[in-house]
Structure formats: C-alpha cells, structure tokens
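Hello,

Following up on my earlier ticket. Below are the two sequence lines again, exactly as submitted.
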Amino acid sequence: MKTKNTKVKELRPLEKISSGISGLDEITGGGLPKGRPTLVCGNAGCGKTLLAMEFLVRGAVEHNEPGVFMAFEENEEELTRNVASLGFDLNALSAQKKIVLDHVHVERSEIEEAGEYDLEGLFVRLNYAIDSIGAKRVVLDTLETLFAALPNEAILRSELRRLFRWLKDKGVSVIITAERGDGLLTRHGLEEYVADCVILLDHRVNEQLSTRRLRVVKYRGSVHGTNEYPFLISKDGFSVLPVTSMGLDHPASSERLSSGVERLDTMLGGKGYFRGSSILVSGTAGTGKTSIGAAFVDAAARRGERSLYFLFEESQNQIVRNMNSIGLNLGQWINKGLLQFHASRPSIYGLEMHLLTIYDAVKKFKPRVVVMDPVTNLVTVGTEIEVRSMLTRLIDFFKTEQVTALFPSLTTGDSSSSEIAISSLMDVWILLRNIESGGERNRGLYILKSRGMDHSNQIREVLLSNHGIGLVDVYAGPTEVLTGSARIEQAGLEKAEVDRRKAQMDRRQREIERQREVTSAQIAVLKAGLEAKIDELNQEITEENLLDQVNAKSRFNIAANRQADVEPKLKTNGHSAGTPK
Amino acid sequence: MSKTAPAEKKNSSKIPSEETWELRLYVAGQTSKSVTAFANLKKICQQHITGKYHIEVIDLLKNPALAKGDQILAMPTLVRKLPTPIRKILGDLSNTERVLVGLDLRQRGEQAA
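Thanks for your patience. The regenerated structure is below:
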C-alpha cells in the first residue's frame, strides 16, 4: 500500500515519517525514511533502545501507526518496566493492540546445528506480529545478538540481507539498533545492509560532565543536518536539541515593555525594550546587574505578566532579601504566582540538561519574561562554543515563544571574550561599569546597542537606594566624566556659580534703579532752577513794561502840560509790545 | 527427572529411560529442507529410540503464533521437549552425528560405533 502511495507522488524524493522524537525530525528534515530501515548505532548505554522505543510508542500514540518491538536482549517484562519510567505504558498499548512486544531469545547452549537452515522462523514471527496489529513501524533491538547465538555467520549474513529486503517490501519503517564496533559503525558491519539512514549515538564524558550526542551519518535521498547534536534522555523521553530550529522566522513584536527603571526607559527611546527581545546586561561584580533584572521582573509582575527567574549563583531567599533593600518586594509576586525562581548550580548537570530544564520550565510556566542570572556561569559547564550554541538555541526558543529574556552577564576586569561572543545574539546590550575616581567607586550605565530603536548614547550613573534604581545624569566635562561625590561637588560648584551670577545681576539691576533715581532728582533740581529763572525773567519783563507805560504816560502828561500841538502816539508806542498781558 | 539422568552418563546409544521422547519439528511449509529434515529425523529416531518417540510437525506458515513459544528462528528446527532439558537442533538434520549429539544420544566427540 505504501509503495503505491509513493508512486502517486512521484516527484517527491522520499517520504518521511515523524520519528516522534523532539528535535530529530528537524535535523532529518521531516523524520525517518518511510518504509525503509534506519540503523541506530552506538555504544552500550547510549540510548539506542530508548530512541527505538520512543519511535514506536509515539508512532502508535500520536500517528496511529502501530508498531512491533522485537527485542533480542531484554524480555517483555524488563522492557515494559524500563520504559515505564518515561511514562510509556506498554501493557496498556499492547492491550489496545497498538504495540506488540516480541522477545526473541536464543540460548546458545541449547542449540546444535545439523544441516542447512534459514531464518524463516524469524520472518514468520515478524510477519505474524506485523500482521496481527497492522503494524507500520518495526524495531529490531539488537539484531547483533544473533551473531552470538547462531554459529553459522554465513547463513546469518545472507539471511539478514534477505530480512532487510523483505522488510522494505513489506513497507514498514524499521529501526535496527546495533552496537558500535572498533573503527566501524557497528560491530558486525550491519551498516552494509542498512544503507538508507544511519544514526550514530554517542555518550561522552568531558571534565566529569557527560553529554550525549547524536549524528545522522547518512541519509540516502535526503538532506540532513550533519553536525553532532546533543540529546537528552529525561523523564519525558528522548529529545534532540538542534542548534537552531530550522529558520529565523520568529515574529518580531513592536510592543514595548518597561524595563522597570523609568530613566532607562527614557534612554531606550522612551518606551523600554521590545517584547521578545533579548537583553544582555553585562558588568563586573557588584555593578547592579541583578538589580536591573529584578526591576524588570518587578515591572512585568506589575503589568500582571508572569516571569521566570533562573539563578545560577544565589538562592531564591537570598535574592528576595537583597532586592528588598532596593525597594523591590519580589516576595509578593511569588505569592501571587507571577514570579518563579529556579535556582541551580551550573555544575549539577551538563549544558544540555540545563537547556532542557529551561525549556521545560518555560513550557510549563509560560512566562512572558525570563531572566538568567548570570548567564556567564554556564561557561563553567561547557566550552565557549558550546555555551554560545546553547544560548543561540535558547534565544531562538525564547523568540519563538515571544518571551523577553534578560541575561545578566558577569565580566571580569576588561571586557571578556565570552561577552563579545554572545553579544551578537542580543538585541539590547546594556553595559554597567565601575567608574573609579576621587577615591570612590560609582556605577555607570550605558546602552551599547539597542536594535530597532532610538537610544541614548549618554552615560548615566546608577544609584541604588531603598527607593529603587535611579539613573542620574553624570557630569560630562571636557576631559572626564564625574560621578558620585565628584559629581555632587561639581554640581555644588555649578550651583555656586549660578548663585554668584544671579547676585551679580541683581546688583546691577539695583544700580540701574539707583542711577535712575539720582538722575530724576537732578532733573527735578534743574527744572526747579529753570522755573525760578523763568519767573525771575517774567518779573523783569513785567516791570519793564510797567516802567514803559509809566514813562509814556508821564511823557503824555508832560506834553499835555506843555500843550504841545503834536498828539502823543500812545498806542503805537514801540515799547507797548510787551504790555498786552 | 533424576531417573533419566543416568542415561546421559552411559556411553551408549541405547536409552534405558522408559519415557517417550517428545519431539517437535518446526517447518515453514513444504520446502525441500523441511521434507529432508522430517525424513532424516524419522530415520534417526527409528534407529536410536525405536518406539519411544513421538514426532509433532508444526508448520509455522499455518500456525505462526506457535513460533514464539519455543523461540524458533531458524527453519527447520527440531525441538526436544522431553526428556528435559529442552534442546534445539537447527537445519535439515542431514548431519546425523550432530543430531545425535544435539539430542544427547551421544556425547560430543564420541565416534559412531
């Protein structure tokens, strides 16, 4: 039936089925080859059986593809018990006819070879098991035990070749597990027969920390990730962590979130961070990274959003107490269920386990804000490259989930290379720096980058007080930046200068006033003098006139007395000009 | 069971035990191998455990579910159910020597008389 389907879609190169293992489908571009065998090889204890079992169980439960598990090593009961810890109930699945467990046990000591034989019995069993539930998936775990059980290797090899041919014809998707051999993928060269898809599992211990890795060695007819991918076996099963998910196509929100520090919002274009962005807050010890993280979480809680705070250094109680000292009451948010702390030592497990714990916690709690404090502590667990790749995955994951993530990052002395390595992954980079001058140490903050927004290029001084975090302008002089008491002193100096100028101005004002008064007084005096003069002159004029009239009259009188014949011209007298008054 | 034990110690092809031998021959259809195997088995039984044996031929193509019970992989397989312990002999039983060793009718390395 399967082969007919593939013929209909002739142009499709290869049909794939979901492996059911998270991450593996992404690496293989859709899953394992449908209707073909896949070889899973690796050393003892690297998780072959588990991978195969999960492939089967997920197929049966999620894709309605029943499966047959043919176990050559463990019996049904052991298998059932082993995978019960992963939450797979094989008994129930068997009862529902979704899974058939078939334990093939060959006791070498019971066996004698006497003549020609083939492995038709195995075919019959497998065929019967497949047909009994209409299985689409088959696991053979581990065929190689047959090499120990059956003395005649020549027969075995030719029969295995026939088996894989037969399985392909049967159209079932098969996982065959095999032990890793010296210099070979498998101890008995099974890869010779199973050529479609080969997956290699590896379990390595590096500096006391174990990491499991998976690599797709070959995948005929399909592109696939060729790297080694770390994987985990946890209580939820097998999960492979591809370095990044397939594309960079996560949504970009233009919603802005307050950083919880008013002045910082102002610096970030007046509105704060973008939702879903990743923020690096780097600085040396004691520069207030955690406080900035806590303020952000506090602001989120005030908006009614949930936040998750991962601590790699301090305990929950410690940080709650410490943040109280800067006026942030985180305890109330914990009680309201808006804030969760996850404190763990970085060294308790490998990076992958950390990653998974974070994935898990985020999936469960569904926070909108995540803080990982300090992200640099993870460097102690892995190499720089590993940490970087882990962070890439993390940031990718956060972005897909639209979680805004803040990463306080501890730097030592000069700006460290790890900081540079991870900073390119970040959208916002806030740098906190100790500024030493005048016998004291102050905290300076500036925004090194902030993608997609107008941001301040100014250095601000961070003041931590019981009112919270404050950012104040520093004194930026021509040669240096002044902070702390030097800044206050400078501010004092400036104020004194201002006062002095103001006083000077006042004084000048008063001077003008006074000058004006003096002048007006002088004007009044002059005016009075002028008036006095005018009065005097007028008086003289009047007197002159009177005198003239008197003279004229007397002359008239004299003429009259003399009885002169010439009429005295009283009215035309030139001296009478001033008399009209 | 302990009664049958002395039989194994004797270097004899004769079986003193009173027990009947219960033998199962698993085959997958009427192939040449299965036919040969059945013929060889009959011959050996008649020679060595005359009258004390019972052969059951199981065709797995007809009863595939039975393969699981005796953990059958190879075809044909002869299973000695009784006397215990269970023994399995793979192949068409053309190597009589090996069959006798496998059935505990002869010690390993002993030459046929």
